[in-house]
Design brief:
The protein has 14 helices and two strands. By secondary structure, the protein is mostly helical. The protein has a two-stranded antiparallel ribbon. Helix 1 packs antiparallel against helix 3. The longest helix is centred in the middle third of the chain and has 36 residues.
C-alpha cells in the first residue's frame, strides 16, 4: 500500500503543478478572464485542485491512522462532497456553453454575458449543496455531543450512523448521474450534428469528434463516481477487506484520474491557451526555446542530407 501511495503522491504533485500553472495563466490574461469558456475551465481547475489536495490528505490520514477533531472532520468531509459534485457540474456547464456557441452562434453573445456567467457559477455551487447539507445536518442531529468534541480518524463513513443516511446519499448521487448524463448526451449529439453540417474539412471534423470522445470519457468517469457509494454499501455488508480495496480503486479511477485529465483535455489541447501557457512555463522565453529547437532540428537534417537547402 505504501508503494501505491508514493506513486499516487508523485502523480498528484505533477498535476497540481500543471493546474497551478494553468490557473496563473488564466489570471494573467484578461482575454481569458472575460471568456465564459475559460472562466468555467478555471473553476474546473480550482475545484479539481482543491479536491485532489483534500482527498489525498484524507487517504493519507486513514492510512497512517491520524486522528483529528470530529467537527473538523465533518467540515472537511462535506467540503469534499461539495467539490465532488461541483466538478462534474462545471463540466456540464462547459458542455452547455459549447452547445450555445456552436448550435446558436448568433445568440451566443447575448446569452454569454457577465450576469449570466455569475448566475451560472452560483447555480453550479447551489445544485451541489443538497448532499453535504443533508450529511452535516443529520450528523449533528444523530451523533451524540460527547463524540463531537472527541477525535476520530476522518472518513465520510464515520458521519453515517443510520442506514438511511447512506441510502439517501447514494440516491442523490444516482439522480445527479441521470440528470448530468442526459444533458451531456443531448449537447454532444447536437454539437456533433452541427459540426458535420458546418464543416467541409474532414480533418477538422475528425479532430472535433476525437475531442468529443475525450470529453465524454472524462465526464463518464466523473459521473460513475455517483454510483460508487451504492456499490460500496453492498460490498461492505459481506466483506470489509474487499470494501477497503474497492474504495481505494474507486478513488483512483473515478475521483483522481478524471481530475488529472482536465488540464490535458481543456488546457493543452486549446491552441490559444496552450501558447500562453508554454510561454509562462518557459518564463517568457517560449519563442526563443522553440526557435532554438527548430534550428537544431534543421541543422541535423542538413548534416544527414547535404542536398537539403
Amino acid at each position: 500500500m505504501t508503494s501505491f501511495l508514493i506513486v499516487q503522491l508523485v502523480v498528484v504533485v505533477i498535476f497540481l503543478y500543471i493546474n497551478c500553472l494553468m490557473i496563473f495563466t488564466f489570471l494573467k490574461k484578461e482575454a481569458f478572464r472575460t471568456d465564459t469558456r475559460y472562466i468555467l475551465f478555471a473553476q474546473t481547475l480550482f475545484t479539481d485542485s482543491a479536491l485532489i489536495v483534500l482527498t489525498n490528505l484524507a487517504v493519507l490520514g486513514v492510512h497512517f491512522q491520524v486522528s483529528i477533531n470530529f467537527v473538523v472532520c465533518i467540515f472537511f468531509s462535506n467540503i469534499m462532497s461539495l467539490l465532488t459534485v461541483v466538478s462534474p457540474l462545471t463540466l456540464v456547464a462547459m458542455c452547455l456553453e459549447r452547445y450555445v456557441a456552436i448550435c446558436m452562434p448568433l445568440r451566443h453573445a447575448d446569452i454569454s454575458t457577465p450576469r449570466t456567467r455569475k448566475v451560472g457559477l452560483l447555480t453550479t455551487w447551489l445544485i451541489g449543496t443538497p448532499i453535504p447539507l443533508i450529511t452535516v445536518l443529520s450528523a449533528f442531529i444523530l451523533i451524540p455531543p460527547r463524540f463531537l468534541v472527541g477525535d476520530v480518524v476522518c472518513s465520510v463513513d464515520v458521519l453515517f450512523v443510520e442506514d438511511w443516511q447512506n441510502l439517501s446519499r447514494a440516491t442523490l448521487f444516482q439522480l445527479y448521474f441521470v440528470a448530468m448524463f442526459g444533458i451531456i448526451l443531448f449537447t454532444y449529439i447536437k454539437i456533433m450534428q452541427a459540426a458535420k453540417m458546418a464543416s467541409s474539412d474532414k480533418q477538422s471534423t475528425h479532430k472535433g469528434l476525437r475531442t468529443v470522445i475525450l470529453h465524454a470519457f472524462q465526464l463518464l468517469l466523473s459521473l460513475l463516481q455517483f454510483l460508487c457509494p451504492y456499490v460500496e454499501k453492498m460490498v461492505m455488508e459481506f466483506d470489509i477487506l474487499l470494501f477497503i480495496n474497492l474504495r481505494y480503486i474507486n478513488f483512483l479511477l473515478f475521483i483522481l484520474s478524471p481530475r488529472c485529465l482536465s488540464p490535458l483535455i481543456y488546457g493543452l489541447r486549446d491552441e490559444k491557451f496552450s501558447v500562453v501557457l508554454r510561454n509562462y512555463a518557459f518564463f517568457g522565453h517560449y519563442t526563443f526555446v522553440s526557435n532554438l529547437f527548430r534550428s537544431n532540428k534543421s541543422r541535423v537534417q542538413t548534416k544527414t542530407n547535404p542536398m537539403v537547402i
